[in-house]
Amino acid sequence: MKIIKNSCPPCVLTIGKFEGLHLGHRALIKEVVAQARGLRLPAAVMVFDPHPYAVLGGAGYKPLFTVEERAFVLAGLGVDYLLLQQFDTAFAALPAEAFCDKIFGDYGAQMVFVGEGYRFGRGRQGDVSTLSRLAEKNSRKLCVMPNIRASAGDISTSQIREHIAASQLPHANGLLGFNYFAMGETTPGNKLGREIGSATLNLTCASGKFLPPDGVYVTFTVIAGENFLGITNIGKRPTVNGKDRSIETHLLNPPEAVTQQEFYGQEIRLEFVKFLRPQKKFANLQELANQLEEDKKGAIL
Fold first, then answer.
1. pTM for this model (two decimals)
2. DSSP 47-63
3. Which of 20, 84, 97, 266 is surrounded by the most beta carbons within 10 Å?
4. Which helix (H) or strand (E) holds 207?
5. Highest mean pLDDT, choosing among 54-68, 115-129, 280-294
6. What's the CA gap between 68 and 35, in Å, rounded?
7. Is residue 255 helix, strand or coil?
8. For residues 15 and 6, which has the higher predicted lDDT (pLDDT)?
9. 3-state secondary structure (DSSP) of residue 85
């Protein structure tokens, strides 16, 4: 899959923020891929970069997934192009018809898929009926997908964010259709894991990444396609007077490269499964080691 910017060759296209890539998004995208294969065209997903909320709602907004993380998920669904459309105040001011000109021109859309509540253009003035009329005018096809619903109603990114912010990972993962994750490189820590007999990996991910609250979590670390169960601490490590927020994982059955501290600089994926406990400051490293043994018992899935 290729990441491209602001224009695309002829394709089957879907457009949206696609921040969560949840079950509803994935159903729509799978249909885009199926139709694209039938038409022998590439399947493309267009998203806005930076996220519109970061431009219109406040620079501090942190999306659930980075561009690279979304590319990873989309590649697994068979998408050929992730199209990044630069989003700024000038783009936000485009009238609906001007935006449609881009869809059927710059974006190369031969067929467009959107959800039933899709709105676009300046002041959200465009809707599905607007897009349908302009698709017909350009001899293109529009497909409108109904919203996918969970037992509690429509699935939304805001619901997922609320669940993650409350450390309710099973609820969030159920709406996503996969475990919430962070991707990044492993970096050296303070090597205290050696002193308590437990190898650790420290993950450095994008600074703008939305993460669960500080605490201890059961996680899977995916290394070269292989899953390793572990315990992950998010926070400032109060027992060792840590100053910066970090993501440190103790693997229950680490591969040899990790036990020998030879894994720095490698990209990994950290999947959050469930919340175990809040952070706690221990009197010494031995108390921390004892608690880690208790945490491991709670990590058995």
1. 0.88
2. EEES-HHHHHT-TT---
3. 20
4. none
5. 115-129
6. 25
7. coil
8. 15
9. strand
